[in-house]
Specification:
Layout: H1 4-14, E1 18-23, H2 29-43, E2 49-52, H3 61-75, E3 79-84, H4 90-102, E4 107-111, H5 132-143, E5 148-153, H6 166-185, E6 190-193, H7 199-212, E7 218-219, E8 221-222, H8 228-238, H9 244-253, H10 257-277, E9 282-286, H11 292-300
Parallel strand pairs: 1-2, 1-9, 2-3, 3-4, 4-5, 5-6, 6-7, 8-9
Helix pairs in contact: 2-3, 10-11
């Protein structure tokens, strides 16, 4: 399989919008089997790539490697594996990169990672890295151009830097942009953003990135609203700004699961269309290991042509998407 950046550049050169899917490692063997069945259906739709998270607090590293290997070798997805610094010494990071390489995986999403379970702040382990920038540098130092590298971007600023004071907030936003530029200059090929529900915020972020001199592709990360509880937990955890009209609609529908899911598809469709119309090269779908909402949105904006199949809900883990 090729480096994802080469695939994305080919799409962009043709002026052809693309999409991609993100999955997380299930907690059980049955969950893994169910996910792989779903992936076999979804790969037939033609995503540009798919990625698999490392798991909250570095808790599912072995499952991530297992699922990533199957995605690449058996299912035939061009796979990007998340790799975080959480609870990872340099030796463990090297071992994971070697395993990825042995499985034919050539794409890594380099992240700092969430704090370990039960902790509120991130602390590097002895002999490990404290930030994604150091991980990007390490991968380039040890592996040259073998791996394509993606990094995360934060339209609303990294959650650790979000504060109430507007002056401090602006300073933190600018600092975070400078840090993102440093990750790109260290060797990152493209950027996927944290979830958001304010399209204008994403568009402003892209403009600010270009003004900062960040020229690599920036993919908007879109998380369909599927359940009231999941939406509230994820937006709270990520400190995501929710526009008032969206918040009001969600509250009005919170006791009707089917209405919430239908609204999520409608909202996601409107967001995706605005993003594409404004020049986003593609859409990265945070699927939460489910098919119907993500595929439904892509179908409504004309990127896929088939009906998604029925599915059983699965409780998502936290995203490990911190820099």
């Amino acid at each position: 399989m090729s480096k994802i950046i080469d695939t994305l550049n080919a799409y962009i050169e043709r002026g052809q919008p693309f999409y991609s899917f993100e999955f997380f490692p299930p907690k059980t063997d049955e969950g893994v089997r169910n996910l792989q069945e779903r992936q076999r259906r979804m790969v037939k739709l033609g995503p540009a790539f798919c990625d698999i998270t490392w798991g909250a607090g570095g808790s599912t590293a072995d499952v991530t490697l297992e699922v990533a290997g199957a995605m690449q070798q058996e299912i035939g997805m061009n796979t990007m594996m998340h790799l975080t610094c959480t609870n990872m010494s340099i030796e463990k990071l090297h071992e994971s990169l070697e395993k990825a390489k042995s499985m034919g995986i050539r794409n890594i999403l380099a992240l700092r990672g969430d704090p370990p379970k039960g902790e509120t702040s991130f602390t590097a382990v002895d002999g490990g890295f404290a930030c994604a920038l150091d991980l990007v540098k390490y991968i380039r130092q040890e592996y040259g151009d073998y791996f394509g590298i993606c990094v995360s971007g934060y339209p609303e600023t990294h959650p650790d830097l979000i504060v109430d004071d507007p002056v401090a907030m602006e300073a933190n936003y600018r600092s975070d942009l400078a840090y993102l530029k440093a990750k790109v200059e260290a060797g990152a090929d493209f950027i996927i953003t944290q979830l958001f529900y304010d399209v204008d915020c994403f568009l402003a972020f892209v403009r600010d990135c270009r003004d900062e001199g960040i020229a690599v592709p920036i993919l908007p990360g879109l998380m369909p609203l599927m359940t009231y509880g999941g939406f509230k937990r994820m937006t709270a955890f990520c400190k995501t700004r929710v526009p008032a009209h969206i918040a009001a609609t969600v509250e009005a529908l919170k006791d009707n699961d089917e209405a919430i899911k239908a609204y999520g598809i409608s909202l996601g469709t409107l967001m995706a269309q605005r993003l594409l119309d404004a020049g986003a090269p593609g859409i990265h779908m945070y699927t939460l290991n489910l098919e119907k909402s993500a595929v439904g949105i892509l179908q409504h904006v004309g990127l896929v042509k088939v009906e998604p199949e029925a599915e059983e809900a699965e409780e998502p883990q936290r995203l490990a998407a911190t820099a």
